[in-house]
Amino acid sequence: MRNSKFFVLSLAVAFATEAYSQDFCNTATHSGESTVVTSNDINDIGNYSYELWADIGNNSATFYTDGSFSCEFNNVNDYLCREGIRYGMNSGLKYTDLGHLYADFKLTDPKFSSYTNVTYSYIGVYGWSQDPLIEWYIVDNWSPYRPNWIGKSTANCDECGLRGTITVDGATYEVYVDKVQRGSIEGDNTPFTQYFSVRKSKRSCGTIDITAHFDGWKSLGLELGNSMYEAKVLGEAGQYPENGNASGTLDFAYAKVYTSEASSTALPQFAPKTNTITSAQVFDMQGKFLGNVNATSDIQSAIKNKFHSTGIYMVKLGSAMKSVSVK
Question: pTM of the prediction?
Answer without folding.
Answer: 0.76
